[in-house]
Amino acid sequence: MAYKISDSGFKDWHPNKLNDLDGKTFFITGGNSGIGLEAATILASKGANILISSRSVKKAEIAVGKIKKNSRAKVDYVILDLSSKDSIDSCTAVVKEKYNKLDAIINNAGIMQTPQTKTVDGHELQFATNHLGHFYLNSQLFNLVEKAAGRIVVVSSIAHKLGGINFDDIMHENNYDSTKVYAQSKLANLMYGLELDRRLKNTGSPVACVICHPGYSNTNLQSTGPKLGWKFLYKFTNILISQPAFNGAIPTVLAAAGEEAVAGAYYGPQLMAESRGRVSDANVAKQALDEKSAELLWKRSEELLDYTWDIH
Fold first, then answer.
1. Strands, DSSP E only, in 108-227?
2. Which of 310, 297, 304 has its CA nearest to residue 195?
3. DSSP string spanning 87-101?
4. CA gap 54, 60 in Å, rounded
5. What residues are labeled active site?
């Protein structure tokens, strides 16, 4: 079963509702392609300054050029590999040196259905990149978001509905299934976002956490991770079912900069089982609402990172 956890009062949000964003700065992980690039372009068109992360200098420079085309905003990039704690430390050191505030960190970067792989830190690649890396990144840059009374945007997926957190084998070292592991990582995104929202509200923090998903959007996600049969299938479903990356970016833009966005809400497309279409409050699977599991996920994340993010 799935539930609406918010009623934000609109049924079809679109970026044309955005106010002028002059003077605001948005940091978008994985902003060099797909939904991240589209979100960056939309925000920049409204005057926002944009910082994107990428694992590749070449891809980052190309993306910066695209974002600048129809914008008066400042656009920059930083190199980041979310699967590496050392890379996150290097990235955040650069960001702290260049910026005194961030109006939002958009947790956009992600990978899907990759073969079983261990990161340099010994973690399963999908869980490390999609969840642990963003958890740690946000903790390191939280003060910059707090100075702006800004937002942390967590991008989940409709795949969270198929997920469960395997606390006994959270890295899925036994019986690895790339699809189950992806679903777990996206459930972790949503549970983390809801838990972060609770902690921020409990402490009276000026920071808001807003969660979203892009539906089924045609991006590199379907071609860079999946192998064999899945990659073949996605060639057809991307044509028959998916929506353009621009449409998939609309929930992200809403969560990051929409005046209508509500802290703790979850936004996404509304049509075809939430895979595409108009954007409003999305459905949350029952397992994502388990607060005890969310608290345990937070604790396990800290243990795996050997770092305590003290928000109570």
1. 151-155, 208-212
2. 297
3. HHHHHHHHHHHH-S-
4. 6
5. 182
13 three-state secondary structure:
coil
Which letter does DSSP use for residue 169 in this model?
S
Q: Which residue has the tokens 């891809």?
A: 59
Token pair, residue 157, equals: 């997926």
Order across the sheet with 49-54: list the strands.
75-79, 49-54, 25-28, 104-107, 151-155, 208-212, 266-271, 276-281
Model confidence, pTM: 0.94
The C-alpha atoms of residue 109 and residue 212 are separated, in whole angstroms, by: 13
φ/ψ of residue 172, rounded to 5:
50, 50
- Residue pLDDT, tens place only, 114-172: 999 999 999 999 999 999 999 999 999 999 999 999 999 999 999 999 999 999 999 99
CA distance 67 to 254: 18
All domains of the chain in start order, with CATH? 13-305 (3.40.50.720)
**For the packed helices 245-257 and 34-45, what is the interaxial angle rounded to 10 degrees?**
60
Owner of token pair 């930083």: 78
Q: State the DSSP code for 150.
A: -
CB atoms within 10 A of CB 304: 20
